[in-house]
Design goal:
Strand content: under 5%
Number of helices: 4
Order of helices and strands: HHHH
Number of domains: 1
């Protein structure tokens, strides 16, 4: 297993780790924005202020994290010329079926 450790393409590892990190950030953000209750200290805010805060920090639909990451990675890989500079191969021909 460790004999091929020297042939790791570190650019691919970095791209993968960044994608995972962004997906986790989106997951946390979606959980916060879609929660039915925003946890606010009761004594600090009045009832009207709490209603306003819940309305301000809520979101009607989840952000499609996977779609955002795929589109962003595709655009960055295309304009960053990753295939030639870092030897990060894009997905080639995908067979039907």
């Amino acid at each position: 297993m460790l004999e091929n450790f020297g042939s790791i393409n570190w650019a691919t590892v970095v791209v993968s780790l960044v994608a995972i990190f962004v997906l986790l950030i989106f997951k946390i953000t979606n959980a916060f924005l879609l929660s039915s209750r925003v946890h606010l200290p009761v004594k600090v805010y009045s009832r009207n202020q709490r209603k306003w805060m819940k309305k301000k920090y809520s979101w009607p639909i989840p952000i499609p994290a996977a779609l955002v990451v795929i589109v962003a990675a595709t655009v960055i890989a295309y304009f960053g010329n990753f295939e030639e500079q870092f030897n990060v191969a894009p997905v080639g021909n995908i067979p039907n079926g």
